[in-house]
Predict the 3D structure of the following.
Amino acid sequence: MLSMKAVSLFMTATLAVGIISGCSSTKDTSSESDSKKTVIKIATQSPLSGGSATQGEAIKLGAQLAIEDQKKAFEEKGFDLQLVPYDDQGDPKKGVANAQLIGADKDIIGVIGHLNSGVAIPSSEIYEKYGISMVSPANTATDITDRGLKTVNRIVARDDFQGPAGANYAVNTLKAKKIFIIQDKTTYGSGLADAFRKAAEKLGAEILGYEGITVGEKDFNGVLNQASSKKPDLIYFGGLYAEGGIIIKQARDKGLDIPIMGGDGLDSSSLVDIAGESVKNVFITSVAGDATKTDAGKKFTDDYKAKFNKNTESYSAYGYDSTGVLLKGLSAAIDANDGKLPSREQVTEAVRAVKDYDGIVTKVSFDDIGDNTNAKVFIYKFDKVAYPPTQDGVIEKK
């Protein structure tokens, strides 16, 4: 027979076990409740490896932060919002292969991407086939939206706006009259260079040369010798920072201390890492604005640094805003569907219908082919060896 002290200890222990069991039971119930939420996946497609990985990762991280910021709001609607990142490696074939996987995953309702227009164009044909809405934070080629695909949208300016904006600055502000153009023979690089060339010629500039290089090359002395012999007062490069940084450095080594200009493909901290001191007197047009110009943008850059221990890149905030636009459309489609999971087609229609979305860096209203009517072009100059460069102008469509 137990003593009163033993009985008391036994009852205390039993009570403690009961309390612990009760807590355990409550936690399990909550977990079961979470597991019952309908999963909705948002994919990103951008280069997470290779020569464009700096900008590609920025798109993915911006999207990740946007999804984390809105996860609770979608949980309240009964949905578990998840990010699924894909590495397109800056390769059209890889992008298309990934797009097929994305299309086959029925939980994926939309895509944020791409960085490279040459990857986005064939990949978006697959999204159209599966009815998956795409919102691009970076693609500038005119063919992105000119094909009239229902699923394809972008929040940044087109090359037929960016190229002429750069030409106008080169001729009228930098007073360039003799220009040598180099381009990387990609959809993006050649498209931007063509738009720049046509506009520069209309403004009275003489194009001394128009030469192509191959992505991945490291020695550009041949094309730079041609440029040097023509004695230009400005070199324009249509391409990305990996090749652009080397071209800038090798041009300076040849004594070409003239202004060098390029597009948003050069808008990366890696350009400074590659070019070093040579980056001074380099000018770029970019479809990406400076996030720190607004209070919301400053908060975003602080949150981004705290979360990822990285400084923002040009497309970090655009990855965030593109995701915000997609989620706005998704939320509207859910509400219109009586709170139930909408179809991909319903999401596609709701995203294209987005008007006056206030993002971190841009307001977004899509026209009938998916272009943002509020897109701008920004002019930057590198007057010191640091990223980001100094903003020297903003150009809006008239």
Observations:
- Residues 1-33 have pLDDT under 50 and may be disordered.
- Residues 9 and 72 are 44 Å apart (CA to CA).
- The longest helix spans residues 4-35.
- The longest strand covers residues 38-46.
